[in-house]
Specification:
150 residues, mainly alpha, 70% helix
């Protein structure tokens, strides 16, 4: 018998992958085993969001599935160690996924979610792990979503 997290993932993952493909042009073959492994693995940040929270929030789930699919398209194996192994590409995948997440939050008219994630975006500017070549991307996302929509 699958765990409640696994059952929830099995129930909704196909719809999220379909949305990513049809709306955002990201085609990906991602299993619940891969996604749950990715969500439970070690990170180099302290603000990790747990699998239960991700699976209970459609926008966070969209973000995490997009991020894993982007990393997978770069050739990374998805599992518990992906964040650590893909560190040089994790931030770029994360920012692309953030763009997708916030775009969808706009479509769904969810300003509360946008405000919450804009706080996260602003904090990235002070993150010592943010590669310097991605600072402009963070500014671009802040301008695109935070100045006008919060």
């Amino acid at each position: 018998m699958p765990s409640p997290l696994r059952a929830r993932c099995e129930e909704i993952l196909g719809d999220v992958l379909g949305l990513l493909s049809s709306t955002y042009g990201i085609d990906c073959d991602l299993s619940c085993e891969e996604l749950l492994g990715y969500l439970s693995g070690p990170t180099y940040e302290k603000d990790a969001i747990g699998a239960e929270e991700v699976l209970s929030d459609e926008l966070l789930l969209l973000h995490e599935v997009a991020e894993t699919c982007i990393l997978k398209s770069m050739g990374y194996r998805i599992g518990r160690d992906t964040v650590v192994e893909s560190r040089q590409h994790t931030y770029s995948a994360h920012l692309r996924a953030m763009d997708i997440e916030l775009s969808e939050a706009l479509k769904r008219k969810n300003p509360k979610h946008i405000r919450r994630r804009c706080k996260d975006l602003n904090s990235y500017l002070y993150d010592p792990y943010l590669p310097s070549n991605l600072v402009d991307k963070v500014h671009e996302l802040i301008f695109k979503y935070c100045w006008f929509h919060t």
